[in-house]
Design goal:
Radius of gyration: 15 Å
Strand order of the largest sheet: 1-2-8-3-6
CATH class: Mainly Beta
Order of helices and strands: HEEEEEEEEH
Number of domains: 1
Low-confidence stretches: none
Strand content: 25-35%
Distance between the termini: 42 Å
CATH architecture: Sandwich
Shape: globular
Structural class: alpha+beta
Number of helices: 2
Helix content: 10-25%
CATH topology: Jelly Rolls
């Protein structure tokens, strides 16, 4: 049995705060080739997850917020927001399932946010065609990234 408790959330959150990307995974799956990937993802405000999509028609993604708050955002092909929801267990919004081939991203709203994420494996790194051309790249200037995230919050 693998226990998810406050102590584990605190450990992974501490690692996220020390990581330059301001996020850290804790994997429950045994290998990157596992057919189902299950992980905690500790996220701090300021982390940037570039809008992306998964081309595999079977690759849904599930985010369940265990603590904290974030915006889950879906986009159309041109980068227009089609759906945005504030996931926050204190407000009764616990999670989302993101369909395959849909552009999506998140913006973290509170420190110490942790999600439980489930998606089909095996791990496949995102390719350029699966990263949104209308959004900043993870390697872009921090000001450009922050402006994009601010705009997503204000929409």
């Amino acid at each position: 049995m693998k226990l998810i408790n406050e102590e584990l959330l605190d450990v992974v959150t501490g690692q996220a705060k020390e990581n330059p990307r301001l996020r850290m995974n804790y994997n429950f799956h045994e290998s990157m080739d596992a057919p189902i990937h299950r992980m905690l993802n500790a996220l701090e405000p300021g982390t940037y997850l570039p809008p992306h999509r998964h081309q595999n028609p079977d690759k849904e993604e599930v985010y369940l917020v265990l603590r904290g708050s974030l915006l889950a955002i879906l986009f159309d092909e041109e980068g227009n927001v089609t759906k945005k929801v504030n996931l926050n267990p204190l407000k009764g919004n616990y999670g989302v399932e993101i369909p395959p081939r849909v552009w999506h991203s998140i913006v973290v709203l509170e420190p110490n946010t942790v999600i439980y994420e489930i998606k089909q494996g095996p791990f496949a790194p995102l390719t350029s065609e699966n990263l949104a051309p209308w959004a900043p790249a993870a390697t872009d200037d921090k000001e450009k990234i922050n402006a994009f995230m601010k705009r997503m919050i204000e929409l």
